[in-house]
Amino acid sequence: MTSMPVPERLGSHLKRAEQALSAAKSAALKGTGLTVPQYAALLHLSDNPGISAAALARACAVTAPTMNTVLRNLQESGLIERSPHEWHKNILETRLTEKGEKVLAEADTRAVRVERGLAAEFSPEERDTLVTLLGRCIDHLQSTRHA
Prior knowledge:
MarR family winged helix-turn-helix transcriptional regulator, transcription regulation, HTH_MarR-typ, single chain
């Protein structure tokens, strides 16, 4: 077996970057009462009112059981409401409440500050290159997942 030193493993660098971003967003969201997964769910809900829990889980890259926990906590906090779909009664549509919209607006201001700070570390050309390279990582990993 040929081992690869950890510093040379791209996966290690990607994971560390993701963890650092998550920690920075978690710190930024602290005053809003939201966790990063809750913020992500509210953000996707704001763009996709009525989305199902399964579709929301895919959009947020979490498992269905995790999303159900996130949604239950958001509903108990009065930030979302869930109601049966008009035609598919076994599917619950999820929407932000007025309170949810207000909390999301504050949380998004804080999260965008983190994103802008990160973006400022790169020139516009470097940002474009980074996005392209990360896209290639994603494409490759998704194509080999089914191989």
